[in-house]
Amino acid sequence: MNTDVLSTRQVATLLGVGEATVKRWADAGEIDCFRTPGGHRKFRLRDITTFVQRRQFQAAGPLPGSLPQGADEPGEEAIRHFQASALRGDAAALVAQLAALRLRGHPLALLFDEVAAPALHRVGEKWSQARLSAAEEHVASQAVIDAVARAQPLAEPPGEPVRPDRGTAVVAAMAGEQHDIAARMAACLLRAQGFEVLAPLAQTPARDLADLILRARASLVALSSTVNAEVSEQVGMAVAAAQQTGGRVLVGGTAMRKAQLPAEARLLQSLRELDAESQSAGRRRARA
Fold it and tell me: What's the distance, CA 175 to chain centroid?
């Protein structure tokens, strides 16, 4: 069983309420907590999940947290549940599901890859087939954006240990890209790795992006594109800027896989790869 420990601030972020509300719930015994020798409240993730289920922050019915026998990753039930919650615009249900699955030991990067991304892909397919309106697609996308922002504590190390200063990461979706949810997920994971994240996100002009990389002296640049395969020149400008700062450029997304990319840009296939690569980048920078 996972024993991640969260602070009052992290619980407030996760539940979308103020810290005073979390303290009031804890003092009233609605959320189990314990206190450190210094008197600070700490919360176990399993107790937060129990509270969420009891207070019905999520949709009615049990959360799909268990795995099929022999499976290493969340399955079809989890994807369907996530998709249904997104289409209802229920960010709280999405957060509750991520927390329940995280409690069972799954890294947040895996949950983004194996639950959130497939669910969003299905929503996009329904929209492209005119089975959803643009408004419904926007509601689902915004719910996931809200959930990703609130899920930041689920990516952070247990107990808020002192994290290394790995410098600045710049995260963006390329010019012409309408969707920046993958970039937001990447930003969430990189913050948890100890990067200060600058995230201009969607439709970032190539020259503006290169200028930002230089000004921030970025140690890592993460770029995504799902619809525009004509990104070679844009990625090249980012690579040229990152070479001046000693940074690395990591790219992902379906359109990036079709593009002619500079050799210096590393193409990743998943957010799990980004998580691993960012750890490696941080260690190399720390030794430099």
Answer: 21
Over the stretch 47-101, which tens digit does the pLDDT of each residue have?
Answer: 887 787 676 544 333 444 444 434 456 688 889 999 999 999 988 888 888 887 8
Q: Where in the chain is the domain with CATH 3.40.50.280?
A: 168-287
Tokens representing 267 are 């193409």
CA–CA dist 127, 122 (Å, integer): 9
CATH topology of domain 168-287: Rossmann fold (3.40.50)
Sign of the CA dihedral 85, 89, 93, 99?
A: positive
Among 190, 213, 179, CA closest to 278: 190
CA distance 101 to 195: 25
Per residue, the 3-state secondary structure of 258-273, as one string, reads HCCCCCCEEECCCHHH
Q: How many Cα neighbours within 13 Å face the side chain of 218?
A: 29
Give mean pLDDT, residues 113-140. Answer: 94
- Map residue 221 onto helix, strand or coil: strand
C-alpha dihedral sign at 13, 17, 19, 23: negative
How many Å separate Cα 82 from the centre of its chain? 15
